[in-house]
Amino acid sequence: MRIYRYAVLPMALKVALFFPGMSVNAIAASSCKTIISEDRTEPCNLSNGENLIIDKGVSIDIPQGQLDHSDKYGLKYNAVNVGSGNNKAEVTIVDHIENNGILKGESGVTVTYSGSVEKLLNRGTISGVSGAVWVSGKMNMLDNYSVIKSSNDSISLNSITIHQAIDPINNTQYGRVTTIRNQKEGSIDGISVKKAVLKTLDNYGILFQASKVNLIPATFTIDSGSNVDTFNNYGTVTGPNHAIVINKGGYLKNLNNQSGGKGITADVDAIQVTGQGKAVLDMDAIQVTGQGKAVLDNPQIRPSRIEQITNASTIYGKKKGIYIDDKGVIDRITNKDTGVIKGNIFSIHNKGTITDRIDNAGTIDGNVELGGASLYLSGPKAILKGDVSGTKDSIVTIGSKDSTAENLDLTYTHNMNVGIVNILSGNKLRLGDGHTTGKISNNIDNDGEFYFNHSDKAIYGHNISGTGSVHQVGSGTTIFQGANNYTGATTIQKGTVLQGAEKSFSPVSSYTIGQHGTFDMGGFNTTISALNNSGRVVAGGDNNAVGRMLTITGDYSGNNGTVSLSTVLGDDSSKTDRLVVNGNTSGTTHLVIKNVGGTGAQTNEGIKVVDVQGASGGSFSLAGDYSHKGDPTLVAGAYAYRLYKNSADNSLYLRSSSGNSKPTYQAGVSVYESYGRMLQIMNAPESLRDRTGGRKDRVLGTGEFRSSAAEDSTDDSTSQMPNGVWGRITASYGKLSPRVSTSDANATTYNMVRAQVGMDKRFYENNQGSVTGGAFLQYSKIDANVGSAHGEGNIRANGYTLGATSTWYGKNKFYLDGLAQMTYFDNDLHSKTAGRALGNSKSALGYALGLEAGQEIGLNQKWSMTPQAQLVFSSINMNGFHDPFGAKIRFDRSESLKFRVGTTIDYRQKATHLYGFFNINQEVLGRNDLTNVADVAFISGNDRTWGDGGAGGSYSWDNGKSFVYGQASANTSLNNFADSYELKAKIGIKTTW
């Protein structure tokens, strides 16, 4: 019934009034006793001055009937009525109505425009199909301790409706309620204020809406220009749609959501302020003229509005916490430290106007759309969870200007895009929580402390100004791209701060870099006021550009920090990054130089890398590739650079020259120089005597038999069965002092072991002599120690040789011996000074050819002498490589042609053979080895004239078929006697058949 009147009847009544004879006031009266102690089924219509008490357990239950268009307020079907259906009638005044039972009808209690109730006290149940309590007149107090509800009708209205007079004569005919108080035990199924006035709503209990029908969109609705002064919620407000809606020009002065209850929650929006409309003229504000007439000018169209929302509990909408459409207005929102404003989509969504500000000391959980409003966050408990957006006029302020307010330390992990963010003195804003990154897409005016705390890469592309400090505390990288000019200190505790645009680092800030922090200039020239470095300063960024300058207008202090510069390592004119300190330096700093394409060159004064204008009390040490004699050394190509302090200007230079203006080379050059000479030692073939131990075949003439003299001869050094196998081992120790060396290499000492196995066979024989051929396999190994003023190293080489021999033994005791061999080398080069391998498993291939001739001269039956000569050619091709410093190492082919002349003295008995020998060796080619290190030539060569001598012997058994032999010798340079030498010993065994 009432639903029909609420939406349709006003139009129907206007039609009815147009036709004469149709009555709208013909409502039958039914009087009531003051105390109702028995159930009733007829309405109770109170008269002027009457009061009413309904006893506990008693009901007034009015059956519903057909709609009567003449009954504007449905008085026939209401349980209790105060006032008539005539809006012009005399006012019916009732002091109090007390319900302890049940009031049920289309409405439980109806106060028409001509009715007035001082107090309605409910301790029972009031219900109605179209709402439990309807007020179009006046009510001073509605005090509820129990249940006021709509019926179970699925399209019921809110249980309390304060409404304009039905078919009013003027705009002042509206319902007015001073106070509704829902006590802690009470529950009210929705309240609607439509073109009416409510001064105060105090809710200590439950205010809810049972119906999901959108006819009444909210649990508490202020609609169509209605005015509500204050809503104090100490309990629970909830609903299946919205909780509170201010609509069509509705007005709420104060909304106080107090702590202690469950707050305001809804399945859609908790609070909506939408639309505009004509205002209801509050009677308290009507002006009366001197003639006693009320001024009833039509009010202007106004927006829906809430002046003040104060939240100390929860405001939660599953879609939005607070929503303001483009016509709505909220002057101020204050969220106390116990308050939570939450929405799954938006916590606060302002498409209209927030005239003053949002103050948050509690939790805002969800996205915030500010529009042009300001958001203030203050107090130690303030939390902001969600994206914040706004126009260029919007402001977010961290902290309060109130001197009594506690400071805020806010962690923010979402996205903020507003006009500006202000951080007030004493307050902190932390962007990120150490893992998740927050983002601010606007300028920041910082007078407090601003922290970047994230683990990934984040860009801050706007400007930071103010007197506050900036801190990098997360392990990630923060990239500055704005024109920052804040004057506070910058601290990089850990992670990296990268300059992403020129002048993004504030030039008027002093910087402190922690042990795990990195200050990255990003490849831009940079100026700062001071620097305290315990971490890392990087000038170059990730590119290869060189020539940046870090200028410190004040002092520099190092605390075992690092400064990384890029330099094209070459001569004095080389391009380089540079640290310029206009003030003083102190402390200890490690200088890291990145070589960008420099191939090295000899310097004079050096490359200036640190320019100190003030007192140079700081200590800078170079982070080199290795340390040589305590000095860190940096390698570029063939050159070694060290850091020197120039006493004339206090600045620091990189130099690749020594005090005597000689170049300083890298630690590997002496190893590379000696490489070929060591392989030549391994590749040198031996003489015939070295191979055979002095034993040789005796050739018989055709048809010749041994004579009796031969049978009686004690010489068993010859054999008629020259075919055989043999093996021998040679060990030697040597020292080579180079005759010429670009690197001024010291003497090289080495140990070499050589093992050979072979087989000989007689291929041809006649009465002039015989030809014997053979083949052998050889393994050799050398371990050489190399040194120079530039560093010491080691060469370990392994040689695998295949060789062949052919010898002519003449009947006249002349012999001619030829040899050819090929060797594969597998070599390891190591620098002791640099403490690293220069090259592992580096290969080389060599071959050698030898031709030897000799003539034995018998002195008597036991003694003989054999003059001899030998020519040996040796060639080795060594493969180039890049060393660990990046230098390209190339070797020319190492070649040697040696001529040897000498003689042996032999003593032979039946089973024993002893001998001695002496030789002169001369290098014929006169060529030195050439090594290129990064296109710098290094030449090395040995003395050319050598002499050697030694003695040996053999012992045979089994009629001379088997024998062992040994030899010891010494070889020395004759150009510089005993300066270079080699000591050698060998032992061998041979079996013939």
UniProtKB/TrEMBL annotation:
Residues 687-699 have a biased composition (Basic and acidic residues). Pfam families: AC_1, Autotransporter, PATR. It comes from the Bacteria. The keyword Signal applies. Residues 718-993 form the Autotransporter domain. Residues 686-723 are annotated as: Disordered. InterPro entries: AC_1, Autotransporte_beta, Autotransporte_beta_dom_sf, Autotransporter_adhesion, Autotransporter_pectin_lyase_C, Autotrns_rpt, OM_autotransptr_brl_dom, Pectin_lyase_fold/virulence. The keyword Cell membrane does not apply. GO terms for cellular component: outer membrane. Residues 1-28 form the signal peptide. Keywords: Signal. Residues 707-719 have a biased composition (Low complexity). This is Putative Outer membrane autotransporter. It comes from Xenorhabdus bovienii str. oregonense. The lineage of its organism: Bacteria, Pseudomonadati, Pseudomonadota, Gammaproteobacteria, Enterobacterales.
